[in-house]
Amino acid sequence: MTESNGTAAAERNDEMPDWEKRFRAPRVSLPDWAEDAPDRSLFVSNATGTYELYAWDRATGEQRQVTDRPNGTTDGVLSPDGASVWWFDDKDGDEFGVWRRQPFEGGPDELAAPGLEASYPAGLALGRDGRTAVVGRSTDEDGTTIYVVRTGEDPVEIYRHRESAGVGDLSHDGSLIAIEHTEHGDAMHSALRVVRLDGTAVTELDDTKDGTEELGLEVLGFAPVDGDTRLLVGHQRRGRWEPLVWDVATGEETDLVLDLPGDVGAEWYPDGTGLLIAHSFEARSELFRYDLASRALEKVPTPPGSVSGATARPDGSVEYLWSSSAEPSAVRSTSGAVVLDPPGLKSPGSVAVEDAWVEGPGGRIHALVQKPAGVSGPLPTVFDIHGGPTWHDSDSFAAGPAAWVDHGYAVVRVNYRGSTGYGRAWTDALKHRVGLIELEDIAAVRSWAVDSGLADPSRLVLTGGSWGGYLTLLGLGTQPELWTVGIAAVPVADYVTAYHDEMEALKAMDRTLLGGTPEEVPERFEASSPLTYVDQVKAPVYISAGVNDPRCPIRQIDNYVKRLEARGAVHEVYRYDAGHGSLVVDERIKQVRLELDFAARYLG
If we measure between CA atoms, which residue out of 202, 218, 312 comes closest to residue 265? Predict the structure, then answer.
């Protein structure tokens, strides 16, 4: 870059508003590293303005862009030997595609699993021999299939079932495969099966088998030691996520009784002697090291806020991706070294969140509140509703809420029933009255926000994306007196049509949530569908949708919009050429600008 070009770029950055800088500033994911070549890493970055995969040779410092697609790429895996990068190639963001492979040093892409047709991904595990892979696939026609793929040979099918399943992990010696499956029909609670490479069963772990209690299991990874048959498993036996160690050869289970409230996840240290514990509680998170021999739990120092990913390195250090609502994300290390610091524009910070606890119909509700510094209410207030529904808002950096705060709004984010991080009972409370339960909690927090003097009841925006977009449209119809403006991104709008058009894994989840298909429980789908209440909507509605979205497909949104049009309701629709959201920074900024402008026009 010449000096004059650099000066011009700096001047443009100075003129750019802070909310836009937060989106444009280069950011990186936590680097994944090759098990047998730890100097080789893979990460995701938006450095070009589109999120793509990058290979990083730590020994030389060289970084190389691996993928370059108009709609971006984020799904990639580094082979254990560090020789190649596998990346998922879908069409226009529709999540339906094939795995491709590229040499770590660069070169042409090739089909990684010749002979397998395009599908939705259902897990991937790569062998340490450099030629074996276990590939999970999902299609509407076949359900889930899993194949063993070896270089130069035809893929061999080892698993098939109509219900959703996925590849969990491949043992260190490449002899055992852990599979998560929902053959019992509950898509939100998986059982585990371990099989050999020919598909023959070794053992099973199923916490749902007695039919009296719905408990889930998840694969966290085989021990990273040759010949070691220990599998790290997440379970919910005490009403929250916790880890246990299961020896799949002997059947022995080692329960880790950790005196930590909230959900607990784990991964192996590289030598297999300890576990890196990730503890999430009340929208914050922290790290610990658990020694398997002594059962000692030692805290890994991290700043207050949220750790969205962490990994233990061979030298014993821990790298982690950290942020808070006030400070942008950064990849940090317990060694004190700077792991990844992308050059260029730096993101401005924002204001810190405040915690609010509100009594609701199903128990205490946790909400996170941000507001412009130095102002008092009542303020125009945005209720920004998270997606999932099995997710939660945390004390982490988010450019979207910060943009609203910059424009003078208070922002309230509600961890309604269905959210993770508050125990299994809170997450599983959604059954059958889907959408309506969450909105009861959101309404309770709304009442608190108005009564406390924070929110102006005449200037309230209900907004969210994905499941949050669904709750926005459902709330505008079932609670029309509560909201002034509605802004829904990639929403479910017509639940019945969405069910028939969406990807198979989401159909399974809907059957679990609502207790059946639209034909089996039509009254539940009707009660939970925004389309049912569209004629009661009073607030101006803004909807954005990806035309290739397999999760919240476009046809069901069009059905809802036609009903708005038929009654002359105030609404705007923005359709863009991508899937369930966009990985292109300019597109995301355009969408936020349109949302801000819409709210400003109708709030005054």
Answer: 218
Number of alpha carbons in the 13 Å side-chain half-sphere of residue 221: 16
**Residue 173's closest CA among 249, 245, 227?**
227
User: Which of 375-379, 393-397, 465-469 comes out lowest in average pLDDT?
Assistant: 375-379
Asked if residue 50 lies in contact with residue 583, where contact means CB atoms within 8 angstroms, the answer is: yes
Report which secondary-structure segment, H or E, holds 465. strand 455-465
DSSP 581: B
Gyration radius from the chain CA atoms:
24
Beta strand pairing status for 84-90 and 76-78? antiparallel
Q: Cα(1)–Cα(293) distance, rounded to whole angstroms?
A: 55
What SS3 state is found at 85?
strand
As a whole number of Å, the end-to-end CA separation of the chain is 44
As given in the structure block, the two tokens for residue 360 are 């609701």
Please provide residue 531's backbone torsions phi and psi, each rounded to the nearest 5 degrees.
-60, -30
- The DSSP 8-state label assigned to residue 530 in this structure reads G
How far, in Å, CA of 536 to CA of 519, rounded?
25
Residue 338, token pair as written in the block: 């700077």
CB 268 within 8 A of CB 223: yes
Q: What does the angle CA 48 – CA 49 – CA 52 come to, to the nearest 5 degrees?
A: 65
Give residue 80's pLDDT band: very low, low, confident or very high (50, 70, 90): very high
pLDDT digits (tens, 9 = 90+) for 33-52: 999 999 999 999 999 999 99
State whether the Cα torsion 473-474-477-479 is positive or negative: negative
Peptide bond connecting 389 to the previous residue in cis, omega within 30 degrees of 0: yes
> Do the Cβ atoms of 256 and 250 come closer than 8 Å?
no
**pTM above 0.85?**
yes
Q: Is the pLDDT of residue 4 over 90?
A: no
**6 — pLDDT class (breaks 50, 70, 90):** low
Determine the distance from the C-alpha atom of residue 75 to the mean position of all C-alpha atoms in its chain, rounded to a whole number. Answer: 12
Which two structure tokens, joined as six digits, stand for 408?
């003078």
Residue 548 structure tokens: 């290739």
Q: For 92-136, how does the pLDDT look when each residue is reduced to its tens digit (9 = 90+)?
A: 889 999 999 999 999 999 999 999 999 999 999 999 999 999 999
DSSP 421-455: SS-HHHHGGGSSSTTHHHHHHHHHHHHHHHHTTSE
Q: CA angle, 279 as apex, 136 and 357 as ends, to 5°? A: 115
Interval 495-526: pLDDT, tens: 999 999 999 899 999 999 999 999 999 999 99
- Which residue matches tokens 């915690």? 355
As beta bridge partners, residue 205 has 192
Q: Is the dihedral of CA 581, 121, 467, 393 positive or negative?
A: negative
